[in-house]
Amino acid sequence: MNKPSGLAAKLRALLKAKETPMWAVIIVLIIGSTVDSVAGRLYILEGMANKHSDQIEELQKYIRQLQNDSARYDWELKQLEWLHPELKVISPDGDPNPLKSTDLNLDMNPGKVPDVKK
């Protein structure tokens, strides 16, 4: 019968050694703790992602509410300008030259509502 040589002989000797079961248990425990550690970290990350998702949804609700309020106030301001064209609207900081729609590169009148200017 042929004697195994090289790597096969070393592997056979390693498996027959007295310390092999102990090393096998140690390796299994290390692998198990690594898997548990990774699973725990993933669980923590999932919880953080869910918390941040809830916060983002809440912020989006606030943003939508502010956009609605802004649109309503803008409409009310336009109505007041139409009813009282003699009154000049000055920004809260007292700037006599407030930004105009041309300064912002925005279409401030997407519905093309006519301005009442006399």
DSSP E strands, number: 0
Give the helix tally: 3
Characterize the overall form: rod-shaped
The SSE string, one letter per element, is HHH
Task: Please describe what this structure looks like.
The chain is mainly alpha-helical. The chain contains three helices and no strands. The radius of gyration is 37 Å and the shape is rod-shaped. The chain starts with 6 loop residues before the first helix and ends in a 14-residue tail after the last helix.
Keywords for this structure?
single chain, 118 residues, mainly alpha, rod-shaped
Outline:
The chain contains three helices and no strands.
Secondary-structure map with pairings?
Elements: H1 7-16, H2 20-83, H3 101-104
